[in-house]
Amino acid sequence: xxxxxxxxxxxxxxxxxxxxxxxxxxxGLVSGSSAVPGGSLIVSTRAPIGYVAQVxxxxxxxxxxxxxxxxxxxxxxxxxYQLLAMTEMLESRGQGSTxxxxxxxxxxxxxxxxxxxxxxxxxxxxxxxxxARIDALIEKKQRMIELWEERRDSLISExxxxxxxLAGRPTDPGSPSSKWVPLKHFCQLxxxxxxxxxxxxxxxxxxxxxxxxxxxxxxxxxxxxxAVFVDPGLAGRLLLESGDLLFSRSGTLGRCLFYTGHPCTSxxxxxxxxFRVRPEVDPRFVFYCARSRFFQxxxxxxxxxxxxxxxxxxxxxxxxxxxWEVRIxxxxxxxxxxxxARIDVLIEKIDQQxxxxxxxxxxxxxxxxxxxxxxxxxxxx
Length: 381
Description:
Elements (H helix, E strand, L loop, with lengths): L1 E3 L1 H7 L9 E2 L2 H5 L3 E3 L4 E5 L3 E6 L4 E3 L3 E4 L7 H10 L1 H6 L11 H5 L8 H45 L18 E3 L4 E7 L13 E4 L17 E3 L1 H4 L9 E4 L7 E3 L7 E3 L3 E6 L5 H8 L2 H10 L10 H6 L1 E3 L3 H44 L12
Parallel strand pairs: 1-6, 10-14
Antiparallel strand pairs: 1-2, 3-6, 4-5, 4-7, 8-16, 9-15, 10-11, 12-13, 12-15
């Protein structure tokens, strides 16, 4: 039978559970899991607290969840929506030091609105229609984001190899490059691994330590609210200069940061490797090459496969890039700076619209289940 974990609930949060990542046998169920019949609700009670989904068939779940089986003539859809509106309240009741967990008693003691069965059905029908409409809008906008991201990636991949697409520019070389050289030939400083430190070395001030998790997919630094620091004495010669390139060598292979911060104010962790380009090379061009499809495909084809994929400094240094004279590198980088910035602004605006729609959806659910919103067929209490 299907076996639900908090990860599955995160995927189906607020909806009906579809295919789960794993299943379980009756023997496995007896040895430590629990199950609920179809038409029940499952709520995550740790990592994180408050995801809720409805099951269409008999379904098992792990110790990070609790099952809620309806008693009497209830419309379970209404209570699914109500619990979704209660996420923050349920989170606030979590306890624990290593991780927060919502105890069964705390969940069972949570108060619920209980309108008549007719009102439950009317509210659930209304929310089914309205959330479906909002979800369709969100899906359409998320698809727009995907299309713009594809456009940006295609533009980068095409221009770094074929600058002739910049038609009419004085730097136009007229044809694709026939000369491809290893990344290390672009660099004066390469194959440098970062600091091997632990969380015990973290400080609230000092030199910022850039970790793999601090590098966003597009190659920028993530929110500084998550930044950690180390004592400057630990960094030594591993302080970053503006224009340095950092590559992830484990996990998110191929992710690259083009460092533009102040010199000597940041360093980098052990699972990153630094490359510093020669003065006659534009580091932005190398960065855009690192974001191209051919670069990413080369990495995936040659990655060291283990529990976590790895790609060491030597392998990065041997990935071949198209060679152009610096004026052409600069022209490519200038154009891509402008165009990718324009696309990124569009993506950010659409993403903000998605966030607003999601907030509106949550507010609509809360207002409907608490009686703040007048719904046809529902008599106010």
